[in-house]
Design goal:
With 86 residues, the protein is α+β, with helices and mostly antiparallel strands. The chain has one domain. It contains one helix and five strands; from the N terminus they run βββαββ. Strands 1, 2, 3, 4 and 5 form a five-stranded antiparallel sheet that branches. It comes from Ensifer adhaerens (Sinorhizobium morelense). This is COG0334: glutamate dehydrogenase/leucine dehydrogenase. Keywords: Plasmid.
Length: 86
């Protein structure tokens, strides 16, 4: 089975891809990366200044295959609702 590496980015910065994981193929590695990203989100949602957590999947040569991101975006209302309006 081929080796894949994960490089994560969270509020503390990024992790080096120093540990190899074996998966049957690229799709299996991406599936596990999605699970890992969800677990990272369960530990805490992204915060400023980055407002994003991500995981990159790299192949056995450390070439980037795909990056998965979870972005938290606060979009202010275009209309201001006051307590009297409720």
């Amino acid at each position: 089975m081929p080796n894949f590496y994960f490089r994560t980015t969270d509020q503390e910065g990024f992790s080096a891809e120093d540990r190899a994981f074996e998966f049957a193929d690229e799709q299996a590695a991406i599936k596990e990366a999605k699970v890992t990203l969800a677990e990272m989100a369960a530990d805490g949602l992204p915060q400023d200044p980055i407002s994003m957590i991500s995981i990159q999947v790299l192949d056995q040569h450390h070439a980037l295959l795909v990056e998965l991101r979870l972005v938290l975006e606060v979009i202010p209302s275009t209309t201001k609702v006051t307590a009297a309006d409720r």
